Amino acid sequence: MSSFDLSLPVAIGCDHAGFEYKTELVRFLNQKGYQVNDFGTYTPDSVDYPDFAHPVSFAVERGEVAFGILICGSANGVCITANKHQGVRAGLCWISDVARLVRQHNNANIIGLPARFISLEQAKQLIEIFIETPFEGGRHATRVNKIACS
Question: Is 123 a member of any domain?
Fold first, then answer.
């Protein structure tokens, strides 16, 4: 049971290090019945990750998508960039427990995937966990509500 509004599309973006994974993950998500808004990159040529993390984050921030997926080599750069946006909570996920906890405790709305450190199959599993795990609320909601600077 997801706490995301899955009637909305999913946003996805990456840099060159995540291009191959993104291509396969779009196909994977489409096969599961999700509409995907692909914000690029569209080739394996070297690019700057903020150019793709910002559009995904804007879509999440504006409520145009259910959630976002960002992929780069370590996922640190895309998460740092995404977390500059108000209302965005991007969590870097490399194991299932972290994917579960960023949803349960942090109400993350963007999952960051480190393509150089996880397999494609792990990426798929982490996305499924992220989608299926609801935010617990309660004491965690109090903490999440203290994140924004404005």
Answer: yes
Q: 115-148, pLDDT tens digit by residue?
A: 999 999 999 999 999 999 998 777 887 887 878 8
Supply the range of the domain harboring residue 75.
Answer: 10-144
CA–CA dist 78, 14 (Å, integer) = 8
* Domains: count for the chain: 1
Contact between 73 and 53 under an 8 Å Cβ cutoff? The reply is no
Q: Would 2 be classed as within a structural domain?
A: no
Cα–Cα distance for residue pair 2/91, rounded to 1 Å: 17
**SS3 (DSSP) at 132:** helix
Q: Determine if the pTM surpasses 0.85.
A: yes
Tell me how far apart the alpha carbons of residues 40 and 95 are, in angstroms, rounded to a whole number: 25
- Consecutive H or E run containing 101: helix 96-104
For residue 130, report the phi and psi dihedrals to the nearest 5 degrees. -60, -45
Structure tokens at 114: 């480190």
Catalytic residues: 72, 105
Which residues, other chains included, contact 116 with Cβ-Cβ below 8 Å and sequence gap of 6+? 17, 73, 74
